[in-house]
Sequence to fold (775 residues):
Amino acid sequence: MPARPDKAPDSTNYEVKITEKPFNAQVIRSSSKEIVWDLSIGPIQFEDQFLQLSTRLPSKSVFGFGENEQPSFKHDFNWKSWGFFSRDQPPSNNGNMYGVHPFYMCLERDNMNAHGVLLLNSNAMDVLLQPAPALTYHTIGGVLDFYFFFGPSPEAVVQEYTSAIGRSYLPPYWALGFQLSRYDYGTIEQVKTVIDGMREYNIPHDIQYADIDYMERQLDFTVSATRYAGFKEYVDQVKLEGTRYITILDPAISGNESVGTYPPYDEGVVMDVFIKDEQGEIAYGKVWPDYPNITVDESKDWDYQTENYRAYAAFPDFLKSETKTWWKKQIKDLYDNKFKFDGLWIDMNEPASFVEGSVNGCSQNKWELPPFKPAIYGPRLADKTLCMSFQQHKTETEMTTHYNMHSLYGWSQTPVTLEAVQEATGKRSFVVTRSTYVGSGKYSGHWLGDNTSIWPHLHKSIIGMLDFSLFGVSYTGADICGFFEDTTEELCARWMQLGAFYPYSRNHNGKGWARQDPPFFGAAFANNSRDILHVRYELLPFLYTLHYESNTKGSTVIRPLLHEFTSDVLTHTIDRQFLWGPSLLISPVLDQGEVTVRAYFPEASIWYDFFTGKRLESGGYQVLDAPIEVINLHVRGGYILPTQMPDNSTMFSRLNPCGVIVAFDSDGNSEGNLFWDDGDSKDTVENGAYYLATYTASKTEMSLTSTIDKNVGGSADNLLLDNVKIWGISSVSAITLDGTTVPTSKYTYDSSANTLVITELGHDMTKPLNLKWTH
Fold:
């Protein structure tokens, strides 16, 4: 968080009013006099392990709080409780899941102003939403440390919030490509079969994953010599073909290996990197690594396997400097000696454990058995994790209990993992993490966990992304087609369509379930998947620009309609549609058997069909055709979207010609930006080594122009603008580019749709564009 200022500002957009008897504190918006925070509704209670505070709210239009499976983006105030405590918990029944984000945004009664509130507290807690409307916080430790963000727009609230906690990380360009994964391919031959299928159908495939099954007995930093023989050479091969490789790392390190056979543990003991129990000895749980020299019988039940097959596992203390050095070394050794991965996926870092507390249980003390248990899963706090009394660092030099640090574990692992993979690869790289906390988006992306192949989880993935947009984590997505259970062809087809518009677009499923990669379902499915992914790849310059704006301004990438149309109350409950930035509206089919979709179009804007360029005749709710191969996309008038010819990998698509889509608003204007860099180097934004252009179009002046705001580093030297689509113009008789007439063979005007398509312009994008037309 920012340092506390030395003095109060000369003026603020809020007032604080304190009454001593009876005590009350109010926070009031200066402009509207709306009371956004009012403690008069209930007492404040401070006890050793229990803190309670209640506040009255200006409205029930509240969004955020997480991480949970939520049935709607807008919260229910009918005495609904949400728990906060990081947990290895798949989406289910509204309970606390992998991350902790005690932040909410409230839209005030005027439907114009919004504010955000963060309780910066890492202890187990819950919040109760009451009809008043009011909130009651209960936490079992820490302090009541609240931060307010006054917007006034919802988008401005997120921008202010991320200015405090850290802007979202800018992923490398290739990380926006389509990604494919599976827990337990079984052998490298199965991986080759899947990748060959992707090649056969020319399906875009930028990233392939290696889950824990590629390891020797699920040991971090190992590769199975039998099931994955030749893995290093194969990774090198597919990278030449345009597919990069990401590997998984769990934090738990096996302690049952023979001395001298497993350096990660041996070196960790010497460097004293592991979390300790109350007696100062290494604390052990159980996670995935198996004992050496055993034969696993997978027909046995879970408890039997945990007791008899899973090794003792130690947990790194990531806030200790020695641990950071040790972790970086293990990652560098893996990269140098085993295979050249491109990024890291960190999992099980709540931290998760398959035994409660430790292999020896937990002692009975106030940390394990606090006087109040918040509304969280599990009979005890140590359920599925470590004992609360275990000792770990809260700074480089200060110690505290796991009770205070538990929900910070994944957050503490993330920055050092990003540093490690960047040092190993020499590139920007990326990290995607399961467990997150306030500020995690500065270092990583996040997938929404072990979902299930069911239709409700298709819808709830949108809600999860909208929540994480509020939390400042822009690079998000869900496991496409679902992790648990067998998917169906129809569900997977609809999920591939929706997943093509996740910022983090990965198809991933679990061990024992049927394949669900696009080639598995046959030619028609594969070709439809390729076609919708080509739309994604066509729009990657636009998506990358949105991530740049998120990184530099705090803007959201995935955006609810209410952020753009705040005064339109119908948008406040819409969570079955979403926007990319301010201008691309995605309206997916989310229900089984449906071949239409009911979509809402705010009447404050003009909307154009993405595939035809034809303007919608009216706003409001519309029923749109949506056969199985179609997802409805619409572009908002007033915006220009940069595009590029798609290919089966960003390695090749980045070499292709570019384009723009120009969609005029009711005033006949349109504007947009393009951010571009080499897509892979570290700190291009910080170093100013990038290209930035602004495009402006005017129907009155009959022109499309660009200005080059920045061009450093040469990344745009070979970019050509070939394709221009202009929507919403009445007629065209001639076109000129920089004063030279464009041949009629290079453009087509459709008078029925009022669309103009220009091709083969060959414009050097490092030079300003000056395109004009006449009626």
